[in-house]
Task: structure prediction
Amino acid sequence: MGNMPFHNNESIQLFILESLDEIADFHKALDHPTRLEILARLLTEPLEFSELQEAMKIAKTSLANHITTLMECGLVEKIERGLYQISFDGEDLLKNSAKTFLEIKIREQERLESLRLRYEALINKYTVLGSEKEMVKENDFKKVTLPEMRVVSFHAMGEFLGAPEPKAGEKLYTWAEPLGLYDEPKKHRVFGFNNPDPKYDKGLGKFIINKENPYGYEFWMTIDDDFEVDDSLTVKTIPEGLFITKSCLGVNDLGRVWKELGNWVKESKEYRFGPHQCLEENTNPKISDGNKIPFILYFPIKK
Result:
């Protein structure tokens, strides 16, 4: 077939239309899994009838009928009494069928992956839109108490602003995503915070990050008391804490809202800065675009 003058689809079409019955009969040889198995088992070496029967666990009559069909199509040849081998045409047909089938399955997976990405994009889009609507309603300061939490901790250091967050986030994702924990954001909440904070030099008007002034970021994911965690991971119990909170959208808005929360505490006559950890809660960790992540910021306070 490889040497036939098929220069274009029109010539292939003409050949098929003129050979419909013959081609259909030819493909009938492959329309049964048993015949495919016979060809596959003969692909590497000739086998005796008894060897095929033992390997395939099939009745003699049935095996004989299938071999006869394959021989009539020229896909199997008898070397001598009871010994068979795959023919050149049989090998060519089997290899090309397997190659074509694999390519079809790969394209099918690519289409499914494309659909999955499009679906996730739509989910993220409408989730963000929903979060934006909620933020309009809930943009006021709120006093909340976070209960005692059991969390798994993931930490990373960085050499410049924005460096440790993705490193720590990748550690969290690698552990949590295969377990399906991102599918339950209300049960497995994700909190993050600087650890340690970058040093800000007022004189220079910029952050200083070096060996003497390190900068890192830590993520927490909440888990139930009975959730089993590998010993290689860090598990912490976080005590209950009182916070003033405010929502924001996107990493670029974090600085502004943190400043507003700090000013709220400074101006408050009832509350002061608390001893517990400032926290940034990512309420939809499936969103990968940093500018669309919905956050709730927790500023620690005490009376």
